[in-house]
UniProtKB/TrEMBL annotation:
Descriptive protein name: Choline dehydrogenase
Record family assignment: Belongs to the GMC oxidoreductase family.
Keyword field contains Oxidoreductase: yes
Organism listed in the record: Devosia enhydra
Ranges of residues in domain Glucose-methanol-choline oxidoreductase N-terminal: 231-300
GO molecular-function terms, A-Z: flavin adenine dinucleotide binding; oxidoreductase activity, acting on CH-OH group of donors
Length: 500
């Protein structure tokens, strides 16, 4: 019998924020026992690695399929008709078929402004096995107001170290340098030095000269190396959090391979199961604060392929940072490989993709809903999404389209025949607010330490805890808040102060 069969802490989910909890807790309490439960499988190779670390070809495709939860076959590629609609700025259903991901919500994905594609992955490492690795710092206007600027600055620095962020991985790339030289003067007004146009900070490094995005193995490190006090168990779906009198007492878990259900007791539970499945699990467990699943916010976006005047194709990404209300966008620009285009591959010019991420309005009516009479592929209440853009969001979207075209004109021109597109809502993969932290239990799910209101020992983690409207990729901030939450939990565990 291992220690982690009766662990001190159970962490539900193996993505970046769950891993940040594990790493922080074990650093602060070296003899703490931790069991991490992941509904999806391991993907082969080192636990928690990014799929880019898996050799390309059949092995990597198998990893993508294994991550797709209920979608157990390769997705069809874009058809010519779909591609033609996409480049004309229209609806392209192939954008809903993303290798390695599945759509978690049950809804009509073609019903106009209510359509929402809630993408997710089921695998060890969570979305950290598939993400781009971009780790831009948020603008200070995007910080949660439960922390002062100095606190948040320090937490972000720690998160950068934990994710092993390289600030200038693409420095010296001729294609990027040429675009930065064009765009930095155009976006200089009102920008402090740390918010200038620059190369994108990346949780990535180079192995034999090739870029490799970091997975959660970088966070967990030696915990994965036969540590008897830490166990990561794949194919283990948590069906319920067990609790009584404001205390989480354990979890009920389905071993998908053995098709058996067990109850595992513990001293504390951390739910780090993403912004859709985390609220779903709390709901299934009868933990239903008024704000649960509400205030759903995501970075709706505009994208465009551009033909560049520069000779060199950018080999990395550059970034135009958000400035809050003065510039409510986070812009990513990177090289595009013509060989990856399914039809009509241009050869005469270097290409780049331009993606403008927008900060959306926060409203409690944008929310998750749960159907207790129907079940999803894991046996949990089926979830659906209500999300509509406000009038202000529509204005922001129009401004983003104009911005996208102006950037394309500055560095070259839109690829002939291509128009800006707005991918389906949810395509950013950055879903926030459904577990939001706050000052009061009537309009938030957790306190500033991500502890669920009314509980002594139940924490939540991930982008869902973010309470602010942001345009910047939220991973760095979510890991920062996980570090803060883990420290608070460690203090309570050490002091035995787990009374509600």
């Amino acid at each position: 019998m291992t220690k982690t069969e009766h662990p001190d802490v159970i962490i539900v989910g193996s993505g970046p924020t769950g891993s940040a909890y594990a790493r922080t807790l074990r650093t602060l309490i070296p003899d703490l026992t931790i069991l991490m439960l992941e509904a999806g499988p391991a993907l082969g190779g080192r636990l928690g690695q990014h799929v880019e670390a898996i050799p390309p070809g059949a092995q990597r495709q198998a990893a993508a399929i294994a991550s797709q939860g209920p979608a157990t076959a390769p997705y069809d590629p874009a058809s010519r008709a779909e591609w033609s609609r996409r480049i004309a700025g229209g609806d392209d259903a192939s954008l809903l078929r993303r290798p390695g991901l599945f759509v978690a919500n049950h809804a009509d994905l073609h019903s106009g402004d209510a359509a929402f594609a809630g993408f997710a992955a089921a695998n060890v490492g969570g979305m950290g096995a598939h993400w781009s690795g971009g780790c831009p710092r948020p603008a200070r206007s995007e910080y949660p107001d439960l922390f002062n600027d100095a606190e948040m600055d320090a937490l972000l620095t720690e998160a950068e170290a934990m994710l092993s962020v390289t600030p200038d991985l693409f420095a010296g790339d001729p294609g990027l340098d040429a675009m930065i030289a064009i765009l930095r003067p155009a976006f200089a007004e009102g920008r402090p030095a740390d918010r200038r146009v620059r190369t994108m900070p990346m949780a990535a490094g180079r192995v034999d000269g090739e870029l490799c995005t970091h997975g959660v193995d970088v966070i967990l490190g030696d915990l994965l190396e036969n540590d008897p006090a830490f166990t990561l168990r794949p194919n283990a779906t948590v069906l319920r959090i067990l609790h009584e009198n404001g205390s989480a007492t354990g979890v009920e878990v389905h071993d998908r391979l053995a098709d058996s259900i067990a109850r595992i007791p513990c001293r504390a539970v951390v739910v780090a199961a993403d912004s859709l499945h985390g609220p779903q699990l709390l709901h299934a467990s009868g933990i239903r604060p008024p704000a649960l699943g509400r205030n759903l916010n995501e970075h709706f976006q505009v994208s465009l392929l551009a033909e560049l005047d520069t000779a060199a194709t950018p080999k990395g990404m550059m970034w135009i940072p958000c400035l809050g209300d003065a510039f409510p966008f986070s812009v990513t620009i990177g090289g595009a490989n013509p060989g990856h285009m399914p039809f009509d591959r241009p050869q005469d010019h270097a290409l780049a993709f331009i993606s403008v991420f927008c900060a959306g309005d926060i409203t409690p009516d944008n929310r998750l809903r749960f159907d207790d009479e129907a079940r999803d592929w894991r046996g949990l209440p089926r979830l659906s999404v209500d999300l509509r853009l406000t009038g202000n969001d529509q204005s922001t979207l129009a401004a983003a389209r104009a911005l996208t075209l102006s950037i394309a004109d500055a560095v070259g021109r839109p690829l002939p025949g291509h128009m800006p597109i707005s991918p389906p809502l949810g395509s950013s993969l950055h879903y926030q607010g459904t577990l939001r932290m706050g000052l009061r239990p009537d309009d938030s799910v957790s306190d500033r330490n991500s502890r669920v209101w009314g509980f002594s020992n139940l924490h939540v983690a991930g982008n869902g805890v973010l309470p602010t409207a942001t345009a910047t990729n939220p991973t760095l901030m979510s890991v920062s808040l996980a570090i803060a939450g883990a420290r608070a939990l460690a203090t309570r565990l050490s002091e035995g102060g787990l009374d509600a």
